[in-house]
Automatic annotation (TrEMBL):
UniProt xrefs under PANTHER family: PROTEIN SET DOMAIN GROUP 41
Pfam families noted in UniProt: SET (PF00856)
SUPFAM superfamilies registered for this protein in UniProt: SET domain (SSF82199)
Organism field: Psophocarpus tetragonolobus (Winged bean)
Domain SET: 197-279
Annotated signal peptide: none
Name of this protein: SET domain-containing protein
């Protein structure tokens, strides 16, 4: 939830269905860093990026229509009069919103809740005895921003600043902070922000949402043919002032320009059911989601997932830490303190390594440090706690920090391989080492997808993350199957599989690729069909993975602790909630009603015969095709069959199919 308003379905909605027509924003603004690279009107890339320091007072456009649509608003909204230190996408969007819409007697602007009393006065409406900590920085930021806006507005009007202008500026800025969404491009980069009308902004948050949204970043002059009708309507409510709020307050966009948005179902939605989306990362544990939502929006989420007692399985897994003590007399009274300290230290360690990698750019060191943390945890690092110096604290493989680490490791190993080949691709040892790092990168991508899919089985709202991770794993595996490193292994006299396999594009055991193509053609898939395809996919991908996993992880000690990157059921032991509670003793192997067994000390050994028995190249290729097709099918549910990501998957699959057919003819 956000506050008071909600949108409900006016009809039965199947999974993977557009819920709204294409929505245009009430206000929007690029982040300052992208002012020279993207069109300020539609957010599409500029044909020729401007090579200069970004200047908030000099906006650029991709076409004359875009310039005509936004330049007049830019000059009339007073944003040009903001001091250089105050320029931000939030303030620019707030001034543009205020230029087109004036505050009403109710605490709303263009029908949007401003939430300004909560954001500026910091009351504590939460009855929970342990609310998230209040953030004074938000209130101070709003005050400083509103003052800068008020001064710019007064200068533009040639009038002195007064309380009424400051109040208008505060309401507009709070409305932007409460309702704006981050606009991402096809590569996931944050380009700017946009505020949409009540058709979208009245959709509340849930940590188990039944809908998501996608952006359309193209020239705004394109026609909106075959538009979906609006399938949701506001549920009758009174605002906090007792004023009836209805759809007549809906605002209008800037002549159809700006980054556009479509809401789409990711679950089957019943008629009259509330439609919800996520305001935060769903792969964060409950405490982190709760803190972020409180800091940004000042509400405590009471959705099904957050209200579950005991915690949902997914939230258990995302925060689980394996704690062991060799001291049989260890007291359990300090368990919560020990766990909280371990959480903080492990978070600091991993975030520091990732931040250092992003700033310094040393992928090999990053890989070494992250794998050391994942393998060793906080072994013996609690000397400052009496009786805890022998405690071993490790992240569970499904912990949210572990998932972040897998993501970084998959990327960093890929960069390592690329760097090695760019230095001197003629040196055999460099090529062989790069090939090994590509294998490890593909293994981490597969582990990441498998771990997230395991969580997705319990929380279907994670489908967008699952789609992206399976697509990443598929591309990594297909790229590995096409690597020149296989020939290098032959040149060095190493035992390798047959390099001229008959690689079949379509699987005889499942209909995944056919289902993907059918979904692209028809634009929809029924929930029962998707469940059946998911089961077929898991069966096939698990079978193929067993044939290649040993080969993929043969150079990585940490990955060798995973016997199966797809099946995580062996890590879970369910205990009765009557005999196990949240503060169980540290020297037990469980701490909650769901607990996990760790197998880092029992690494599996890979025999050379096992690695090279099967046709590894063909299996890796087939595994990649499965991952890519399933990721594409999942993405079509989230973003639609004609979205950029789905079209990208279709293009890759088409090119690989043509390549395979060509290879067969040559052989």
């Amino acid at each position: 939830m956000k506050m008071e308003m909600e949108m409900r379905s006016i009809e039965e909605i199947e999974i993977g269905t557009d819920i709204t027509p294409t929505l245009t924003p009430l206000s929007f603004s690029l982040h300052t860093s992208h002012l020279n690279t993207h069109c300020s009107a539609c957010f599409s890339p500029l044909p020729m990026p401007i090579q200069s320091i970004p200047n908030p007072n000099s906006l650029f456009y991709c076409s004359p229509p875009c310039s005509a649509a936004l330049s007049s608003l830019h000059h009339s909204s007073a944003e040009r009069l903001l001091p250089p230190s105050a320029h931000s996408s939030d303030l620019r969007a707030a001034l543009r919103l205020l230029r087109s819409h004036r505050p009403s007697p109710s605490p709303r602007l263009a029908g949007l809740l401003s939430n300004h009393h909560l954001l500026t006065s910091l009351p504590n409406p939460n009855p929970n005895p342990n609310p998230p900590p209040l953030n004074d920085d938000v209130s101070q930021t709003i005050t400083l921003g509103a003052r800068a806006m008020a001064q710019a507005i007064s200068n533009h009007r040639r009038l002195p600043v007064d309380d009424a202008v400051f109040e208008e500026a505060t309401i507009a800025l709070c409305a932007v902070l409460t309702n704006a969404v981050e606009v991402h491009d096809n590569e996931g980069r944050a380009l700017g922000i946009a505020v949409f009308d009540t058709n979208f902004s009245w959709i509340n948050h849930s940590c188990s949402p039944n809908a998501c949204y996608r952006f359309i970043l193209t020239s705004s002059s394109s026609s909106h043919s075959e538009e979906t009708q609006l399938r949701i309507a506001p549920h009758p409510h009174m605002d906090s002032g007792g004023v009836s709020v209805c759809s007549s307050e809906f605002g209008k966009g800037v002549q159809g320009y700006g980054p556009r948005l479509v809401v789409r179902s990711i679950k089957k939605i019943k008629r009259g059911e509330e439609v919800t989306v996520a305001y935060t990362d769903l792969l964060q544990p409950k405490a982190m989601r709760r803190l972020e939502l409180w800091s940004k929006y000042r509400f405590i989420c009471c959705c099904r997932r957050c209200s579950a007692l005991p915690f949902s399985y997914v939230d258990h897994a995302l925060q689980e830490i394996s704690a062991f003590s060799y001291d049989p007399s260890c007291s359990c009274s300090n368990y919560k303190f020990l766990k909280d300290m371990a959480d903080r230290r492990l978070t600091e360690c991993i975030e520091d390594v990732i931040s250092e990698y992003l700033s310094v750019g040393d992928p090999e060191t990053c890989c070494e440090k992250l794998e050391k943390i994942l393998m060793q945890g906080l072994n013996g690092q609690f000397e400052d706690i009496e009786g805890k110096s022998d405690s071993i604290i490790k992240l569970h493989p499904l912990h949210h920090l572990s998932i972040n680490a897998y993501t970084t490791l998959a990327s960093a190993y890929k960069v390592c391989a690329s760097d090695l080949l760019s230095v001197d691709s003629e040196i055999d040892i460099n090529q062989l080492k790069a090939f090994g790092m590509s294998r490890t990168s593909a293994a981490y991508s597969l582990l990441l997808a498998g771990a997230t899919h395991h969580l997705f089985n319990s929380e279907s709202s994670l489908i967008a993350s699952v789609a992206n991770f399976w697509i990443g794993a598929g591309e990594s595996l297909i790229s590995l199957s096409r690597s020149s490193g296989w020939s290098m292994c032959v040149n060095l006299g190493l035992v390798v599989p047959d390099l001229a396999p008959t690689m079949k594009f379509k699987c005889s055991k499942c209909s995944l690729t056919d289902r993907f193509k059918a979904c692209i053609s028809h634009g929809q898939i029924k929930i029962t069909d998707f469940e059946n395809v998911s089961n077929e996919f898991l069966h096939c991908v698990s079978d193929i993975t067993q044939k290649v996993w040993g080969f993929l992880i043969s150079d990585c000690h940490f990955l060798s602790s995973f016997k199966d990157p797809i099946n995580f059921s062996g890590l879970v032991v369910t205990k009765s909630s009557r005999t196990v509670h949240a503060e169980a003793c540290v020297n037990k192997s469980y701490k909650t009603d769901v607990c996990y067994t760790h197998e880092f000390e029992n690494s599996i050994c890979i025999c050379e015969d096992q690695i090279h028995t099967d046709n590894v190249v063909a299996c890796i290729f087939q595994l990649g095709i499965h991952c890519l097709a399933y990721g594409g099918l999942s993405a079509s549910i989230c973003y639609g069959p004609h979205s950029h990501l789905v079209c990208h998957v279709q293009n890759v699959l088409d090119s690989e199919q043509n390549f395979v057919l060509y290879s067969k003819e040559e052989s």
